[in-house]
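User: Quick sanity check before I run a bigger batch. Here is a single chain. Can you write out its predicted 3D structure?
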Amino acid sequence: MTPSAPRNTRLLWLALPGVGVLTAFFLAPLAVVFIEAGKGDAIARLFAGREFWDALVASLWLGARAAALSLVVGIGVAAHLARVSPRLRAALQVLIALPLTFSGLIVAYGFILLLGRAGFITLLLEKVGADPAAIAGAFYGPVGLIFAYSYYLIPRVVLMLLPVFLNFDPRQMQAAESLGAPRWRAWFEIVLPQVAPTFLAAFCLVAAVAVGAYGTALALVGTQLNILPLRLYALISDVGADFPLASAVSVLLLAVCSMIMAVAEIAAARAEDVNVRS
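Assistant: Done. Predicted structure follows.
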C-alpha cells in the first residue's frame, strides 16, 4: 500500500456525507422528474401545445430584458465602485448585496407597497396628475416584473463585474488618449474586448435566474402571465394537477437554464483567458 492510500481513504470517507446529501436531495429528485416526464404522452403533449411554446418565448424574452437592464445598471455601479476608496467600497458592497438575502415574495411585496394601486409612489404620482390605474396596470405585468427582477439581479451583476474594473489598468486608456484617440474609441477598442466576455457571462447568469424565478412573478401577476415557471406552478396546484406534464415542463425549463448557464461558463472561461494573456 502506498503512503498516499490512507490519506485517499480518509478523503473518501470525508466526501461520503456530501455525496449522500447530493444524491438524496438533487440526483434522486432529478431522476424522479425525468422518469415522471417519460410517462404516457407528457412530452408529446408538451411540444404539441401552443401555449407552452408561447410560454417559452415569453420566458426568454422576459429574462433577456431583465438581464439587459440589470447589466446596464450594474456596469455603471461597478465602474463607480472601482473608483471609490476601499473602505467606502466595502460599505457600499454590503448595502448592494442586501437584496440577495430577500426572497422573491418579500421583493414583490415591497414593490407592491411602492408601486401598487395604493402604493406610496403611486399615490405621490396621483397628486401630480398621474393615473393610478394606469401605473398599477403597467406594474402588474411584464414591466413590473422586469423592475422587480432587476432589484435582485443588479447586485449579482455588480459583484461579478467589480473585480474586472478593479483589475483593469487605466494606463491603457491614458496611453490611447495621449495618442489622440477619443475616449469613446479607446473604450470600444481597448476596454470592451477585455471585459466583453465577463459582460456576457454576467448577462447569461442573471438571465437564467430570471427565466427560472417564480416567487416574484407569482406574487405580482399570479398565473395570468404565460411564462414557464408559472405554467409549472399551475400544473402542480391542487386543482387539476398533471404531474407528468409538470415534469416535462420542469425538464424543458432545466434544459433552457442549463444552456444559458453553459454560455455563461464558456464566456467566463474566455474572460479568464483574456485576463491571463493581458
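The two ends are 46 Å apart (CA to CA).

User: Great, the batch can go ahead then.
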